[in-house]
Amino acid sequence: MASLLYGTGMRLMDCVRLRVQDIDFGYHQIVIRDGKGKKDRVLPLPERLVNQLKTHLEAVHEIHETDLEKGLGETSLPNALEQKYPDGAKEWGWQYVFPSGRFSVDPRSGKIRRHHIHENGLQKAIKNAAQQANITKRVNCHALRHSFATHLLESGYDIRTVQELLGHADVSTTMIYTHVLNRGGKGVKSPLDGL
User: Fold this and answer.
1) How deeply is 132 buried, as exposed, middle or buried, from its count of CB atoms within 10 A (0-12, 13-18, 19+)?
2) Residue-level pLDDT at 190
3) 95-121 pLDDT, tens per residue?
4) Of these residues, 17, 41, 116, 168, which one is catalytic?
5) Whether residue 124 lies in the annotated active site
6) Do 176 and 36 contact (CB within 8 A), yes or no?
7) Residue 44's closest CA among 28, 25, 21, 24?
8) Is residue 142 among the annotated active site residues?
9) Which listed residue (127, 142, 146, 151) is catalytic?
10) Residue 138 designated active-site
């Protein structure tokens, strides 16, 4: 999950709410539906994660099949789709990519369902990894999103492309990442570093 945050620039909740049908291996893209600002956007699927994701989804599919055999296997559907697709909650494509390890009662319907994992688990894992690596800077899930944007700009991608990938409504929000392009000292490199 941390690799997805860095490799796509998605937000934490975009990642935990990701559905199986939102990953398109054929076009190497991930669709974020109803993200912040109620907008959809398309992100690149990192080639490096394809095999890991496929293996992960095979394991999740087995869990889903076992749930169905037990008469469960439902997940929640967004908005009014439950009325439109009465059996959609059991379909593979609507399942969460990162499902919870246990069932819970859906407060809206009262049904027992498997929801997505809780975001705190990933947040704690990233914090622990940073501590184990002796990183003294503040590290959290959002730092991976910042790194995604920063590294794209350092690689020469234009600010509008980065804006679109991040889902920012205004380019001025994306402009905060340009600080890395203007490194301290007004971009001057010390002569000592040239030796």
Assistant:
1) exposed
2) 63
3) 999 999 999 998 888 889 999 999 999
4) 168
5) no
6) no
7) 28
8) yes
9) 142
10) no
